[in-house]
Amino acid sequence: MPKTRIELDCGNLSPFISGRDFASIFSEVKRAHELLIDRTGEGGASLGWLDLPDDTPDELIRDIENCAGEIRETSEVLVVIGIGGSYLGSRAALEFCRPEGLKVVFAGINLDADYLQDVLDGLKGRDVCVNVISKSGATLEPAAAFRVIYNYMKKRYSSRQLKKRIICTTDRQKGTLKKIADSEGFRKFFIPQDVEGRFSVLTPVGLLPQAASGIDIRELLRGGSDMKDLCSALDLEKNISYRYAAARQLLYRKGKNIEILSGFNPCLYYLAEWWRQLFAESEGKQGKGIFPASCVLTTDLHSIGQMIQEGARNLFETFMAVEKPKREIKVPAMDKNIDGLDYIKGKGFSFINNQARVGTRKAHMDGGVPNMSIKIADRSAYSLGSLFFFFEKAVAISAYIQGVNPFNQPGVEAYKKNMFELLGRENTKP
Ligand code: PA5
After folding, report:
1. Sign (positive or negative) of CA dihedral 322, 323, 329, 335
2. Is 281 a catalytic residue?
């Protein structure tokens, strides 16, 4: 049995769901497991992510590492342009691992002029590379940002330089971005056709920005691979991904239709953003789904904590905490106990944070909010790779139990249709 550095504790579910409940849902977990293994479920053509931790070719990893090395040698800033699944994974990784390398900034994540101008202002006087990422090659937010940034880059660099400084990550065969990359001679990486955006963090979509920032992508994949082994058994005790998926669906059936992913470390903020997209786009369809919310604690105990403790009882919570911070700070001794804090004198902040977590779990449980807890050993790339795979496998199982296709997102088109009509796109297609 492989060891991973992730643990799931379901101890605070017992008054709400019982061992008998877990036994009762087992046949549905088994069915979902078979749909994934046999690749016969809805969206079965989008299961390439299952193989990524083990089957990413060494040649591709080396290409990514080489390209990342060139970016670091030639540039002080990497602008990553992409939205949704083409962005959130690498942003989550950068915040979680906080490597000390190259500065990475994100564009194409909204349609706000001030935001984009701030990105451009931040490039002044610094050498720049750009990684534009879009599987469809047609998403407006990144496409519009790329037009602006390409225009900027053209004014700064020769066309020979641009061929090295602009890297496109897109579909191998189709889409506008692929056409642009071919016609302008930009460097390219491809997104496998059987991997959807929100499952693409272990493809070049996530691997290149992470490698460029100094994250060890081999360790990331190794973490994913060990989690893949751990989560392959049809066993609700050993397989933490399946236990988490089963618990969520049992809670949902008991009227708990909002899940809050509560991270006890700010470095988990963007991991929760990535998780929100993964779960919302995979499960929220056909009038069904658990609404994925997130917060950072203890910060948000002073804002939405009241609602969690005493508001409508349709919530459950999944806590996440990093056991070992990168650095530790101890509360210093003072000559006099002027602030009354001597009771924590000499204690590490991580110890205090942990006591806050234990206290919060109990308080929320007493307030009628069942909770689970995910312990993450450290902020390593290995742990992060394990976490990515843990959640991906869990959402696939959970969505199949819920009876929806985890791998499409038809609802995302509605706003686009209206927006494109208002912008008059039909008359100006290339
Ligand atoms: O999960 C998904 O497929 C979406 O969130 C996409 O990642 C997002 O809409 C961006 O799409 P694209 O990469 O085609 O620009």
Report:
1. positive
2. yes
